[in-house]
Predict the 3D structure of the following.
Amino acid sequence: VTLAATVTLFKKGNSMGGFRFTERDQAILQFINAFGFCEMPHLAQRFGLRKPRSYEVINRLISAGLVQHER
């Protein structure tokens, strides 16, 4: 699973149509954007997330249109 992010800076706790953008979301987007892509194990390790939680977070970012998912 490869991910590419579009980074748009938001204020802490800003919401986008029901999507609550967090500081961790911003850090994840910046992390992905720094390399141009990322794989799920990278996110889990870098942000201390367990596998199910990392997928929940990234799926939320994908649904918000902030991350592109490619296989």
Observations:
- The radius of gyration is 11 Å.
- The CA atoms of residues 23 and 40 lie 19 Å apart.
- Residues 6-13 have pLDDT under 50 and may be disordered.
